[in-house]
Task: structure prediction
Amino acid sequence: MNWDIAFYEEIDSTNLEIRRKSIDGARQGLVVLADKQNEGKGRRGRVWESPAGENLYFSILLRPKFAPEKAPMLTILMAHTVARVLEKMFYSEMEPIQIKWPNDVIISNKKVCGILTEMNLNGCQIEDVIIGVGINVNRMTFSEELEDKATSLRLEFKEEVEREVLLSQILCEFAEQYETFVEIQDLSFVKEAYNKMLVNQNREVMVLEPSREYQAQALGINEIGKLLVKKEDGSIDTVYAGEVSVRGVYGYV
Ligand code: BTN
Result:
């Protein structure tokens, strides 16, 4: 994959900008990077706080040829990529890098990275997949609302981090993993490593479906990225990220 990086001092949202460029015919491998976002988008319609000068906000454009059902696995692949890169750069036994299924990267039970993947279809075929990544890099303070749930690399590892270095490592690692994914079209090659980092593994979680919620034990993902959970009666359910969310029984993770 050859990456082309378009940098903006300020933008509404890198996901929105890359979509505009995609409509204009941009090719796979475009990266839109911004120092500040005015309308940073989080999952489930939330806002992603995006102040200038301290964090990473970027989106990548992919034009995969596979079936749309496979696209959600790319979010998991990106979470795995980010977690792996952070582990290489900041390995710490005390503060391991973890993943909250499906795609939040966590340190000390707080979120350090969020990923928003959006797909556009042309009939039954994928027109584009946009993966937006927000990483709290050098941020030192959070709003009262986020204080207990969010952290940054600088707060955790007590050092200022060069954002460009982190970005280039992530793009390099993702390109490699994406190539393998396109070949085998499932997550079997990262499943074990992902599950090792999964903060939910073997923990009690609440599975929140649109129409019901229940408590279960999270076991790990299968090769297509669904979360396997063991219910109280011992039966196993597979939970799909698009339909349900999972949260810890005692808080965020
Ligand atoms: C989440 O809610 O966990 C997902 C957050 C994703 C934020 C990133 S920042 C770069 C890209 N542009 C956006 O507007 N959102 C994503």
Q: What stands out?
A: The longest helix spans residues 163-184. The pocket of biotin is lined by residues 13-15, 37, 40-43, 46, 48, 57-59, 104, 114-116, 132-134 (CB under 6 Å).
